[in-house]
Specification:
Length: 158
Amino acid sequence: MRYPAAIISGLLLLAVTARGAESAAPATVADLAWLAGHWRMERNGRVVEEHWLPPGGGTMLGVSRTVKDGRTLEYEFMVLRADAAGVLHFHASPSGQAGAVFRLVRVEGQRFVFENPAHDFPQRVIYGLQPDGSLLAAIEGERDGKVRRIEFPYQRAK
Protein backbone atom coordinates (compact mmCIF):
# COMPACT_ATOMS: atom_id res chain seq x y z
CA MET A 1 0.00 0.00 0.00
CA ARG A 2 1.34 3.42 -0.95
CA TYR A 3 0.86 6.44 1.30
CA PRO A 4 0.82 9.99 -0.01
CA ALA A 5 4.06 11.89 0.61
CA ALA A 6 2.18 14.55 2.64
CA ILE A 7 1.01 11.94 5.17
CA ILE A 8 4.49 10.41 5.50
CA SER A 9 6.06 13.87 5.89
CA GLY A 10 3.47 14.79 8.51
CA LEU A 11 4.10 11.61 10.51
CA LEU A 12 7.87 12.15 10.37
CA LEU A 13 7.47 15.75 11.56
CA LEU A 14 5.21 14.59 14.39
CA ALA A 15 7.73 11.93 15.44
CA VAL A 16 10.65 14.39 15.41
CA THR A 17 8.62 16.99 17.35
CA ALA A 18 7.53 14.43 19.94
CA ARG A 19 11.10 13.18 20.37
CA GLY A 20 12.40 16.75 20.80
CA ALA A 21 9.78 17.45 23.47
CA GLU A 22 10.80 14.30 25.36
CA SER A 23 14.50 15.15 25.28
CA ALA A 24 13.99 18.72 26.53
CA ALA A 25 14.01 18.22 30.28
CA PRO A 26 11.95 20.68 32.31
CA ALA A 27 13.82 23.23 34.40
CA THR A 28 14.53 22.16 37.95
CA VAL A 29 15.40 23.92 41.18
CA ALA A 30 19.01 22.86 40.57
CA ASP A 31 19.02 25.05 37.43
CA LEU A 32 18.61 28.04 39.75
CA ALA A 33 21.43 27.06 42.13
CA TRP A 34 23.28 30.24 41.09
CA LEU A 35 20.56 32.21 42.94
CA ALA A 36 21.73 30.86 46.33
CA GLY A 37 23.33 33.44 48.59
CA HIS A 38 22.88 37.02 49.74
CA TRP A 39 21.83 39.71 47.25
CA ARG A 40 21.61 43.44 48.03
CA MET A 41 20.61 46.73 46.41
CA GLU A 42 20.14 50.31 47.60
CA ARG A 43 17.67 52.75 46.07
CA ASN A 44 16.03 55.94 47.37
CA GLY A 45 17.34 55.40 50.90
CA ARG A 46 16.04 51.84 50.97
CA VAL A 47 18.12 48.70 51.33
CA VAL A 48 16.57 45.64 49.74
CA GLU A 49 18.09 42.23 50.43
CA GLU A 50 17.26 38.72 49.31
CA HIS A 51 18.73 35.60 50.87
CA TRP A 52 18.35 32.25 49.12
CA LEU A 53 19.28 28.84 50.50
CA PRO A 54 20.91 26.45 48.04
CA PRO A 55 18.75 23.71 46.48
CA GLY A 56 17.90 20.92 48.88
CA GLY A 57 15.07 18.41 48.96
CA GLY A 58 13.70 19.77 45.68
CA THR A 59 13.24 23.31 47.01
CA MET A 60 14.99 26.62 47.35
CA LEU A 61 13.84 28.89 50.17
CA GLY A 62 14.21 32.66 50.03
CA VAL A 63 13.47 35.67 52.17
CA SER A 64 13.45 39.34 51.23
CA ARG A 65 13.47 42.47 53.37
CA THR A 66 13.26 46.19 52.61
CA VAL A 67 14.65 48.55 55.27
CA LYS A 68 14.59 52.36 55.37
CA ASP A 69 15.70 54.58 58.25
CA GLY A 70 16.28 51.54 60.45
CA ARG A 71 12.72 50.25 59.97
CA THR A 72 11.51 47.20 58.03
CA LEU A 73 9.00 48.38 55.46
CA GLU A 74 8.34 45.09 53.65
CA TYR A 75 9.32 41.45 53.78
CA GLU A 76 8.56 38.35 51.76
CA PHE A 77 8.99 34.59 52.08
CA MET A 78 9.60 32.68 48.84
CA VAL A 79 9.79 29.06 47.74
CA LEU A 80 10.93 27.58 44.44
CA ARG A 81 9.76 24.01 43.81
CA ALA A 82 8.28 21.76 41.16
CA ASP A 83 4.69 20.53 41.23
CA ALA A 84 3.69 16.87 40.81
CA ALA A 85 4.01 17.22 37.01
CA GLY A 86 7.59 18.53 37.35
CA VAL A 87 6.76 22.15 36.46
CA LEU A 88 8.75 24.68 38.47
CA HIS A 89 6.78 27.25 40.51
CA PHE A 90 7.66 30.40 42.46
CA HIS A 91 5.59 30.75 45.66
CA ALA A 92 5.55 34.24 47.17
CA SER A 93 4.16 35.31 50.55
CA PRO A 94 4.65 39.08 50.84
CA SER A 95 4.05 41.00 54.06
CA GLY A 96 0.41 41.86 54.61
CA GLN A 97 -0.83 40.07 51.47
CA ALA A 98 -2.17 36.68 50.50
CA GLY A 99 0.39 34.34 48.99
CA ALA A 100 0.55 33.76 45.25
CA VAL A 101 1.99 31.06 42.99
CA PHE A 102 3.67 31.78 39.65
CA ARG A 103 4.34 29.04 37.09
CA LEU A 104 7.60 28.88 35.11
CA VAL A 105 6.69 29.81 31.54
CA ARG A 106 10.05 30.61 29.94
CA VAL A 107 13.75 29.91 30.40
CA GLU A 108 16.22 31.94 28.35
CA GLY A 109 19.71 30.91 29.37
CA GLN A 110 20.00 32.04 33.00
CA ARG A 111 16.74 34.05 32.88
CA PHE A 112 13.62 32.47 34.40
CA VAL A 113 10.14 33.94 33.86
CA PHE A 114 7.31 32.89 36.18
CA GLU A 115 3.74 33.91 35.45
CA ASN A 116 0.29 34.03 37.04
CA PRO A 117 -2.10 35.93 34.71
CA ALA A 118 -4.89 35.78 37.32
CA HIS A 119 -2.85 37.63 39.97
CA ASP A 120 -3.57 41.34 40.52
CA PHE A 121 0.02 42.61 40.41
CA PRO A 122 2.51 41.44 39.47
CA GLN A 123 1.57 38.87 36.86
CA ARG A 124 5.21 37.99 36.16
CA VAL A 125 8.27 37.45 38.36
CA ILE A 126 11.64 37.32 36.60
CA TYR A 127 15.08 36.29 37.86
CA GLY A 128 18.09 36.62 35.59
CA LEU A 129 21.79 36.14 36.23
CA GLN A 130 23.68 38.86 34.35
CA PRO A 131 26.99 38.33 32.52
CA ASP A 132 28.84 40.32 35.22
CA GLY A 133 27.49 38.02 37.98
CA SER A 134 24.86 40.45 39.22
CA LEU A 135 21.17 39.56 39.52
CA LEU A 136 18.38 41.40 37.76
CA ALA A 137 15.06 40.53 39.34
CA ALA A 138 11.86 42.16 38.15
CA ILE A 139 8.14 42.11 38.68
CA GLU A 140 5.83 43.19 35.92
CA GLY A 141 2.27 43.20 34.76
CA GLU A 142 -0.75 45.40 34.45
CA ARG A 143 -1.98 47.63 37.27
CA ASP A 144 -4.77 50.20 36.94
CA GLY A 145 -4.83 49.66 33.18
CA LYS A 146 -1.12 50.42 32.76
CA VAL A 147 1.76 48.03 32.15
CA ARG A 148 4.34 48.37 34.91
CA ARG A 149 7.78 46.91 35.50
CA ILE A 150 9.82 47.27 38.66
CA GLU A 151 13.44 46.14 38.51
CA PHE A 152 15.67 45.04 41.35
CA PRO A 153 19.32 45.22 40.22
CA TYR A 154 21.07 43.21 42.94
CA GLN A 155 24.75 42.69 43.61
CA ARG A 156 26.11 39.77 45.58
CA ALA A 157 26.66 40.98 49.14
CA LYS A 158 30.18 40.58 50.47
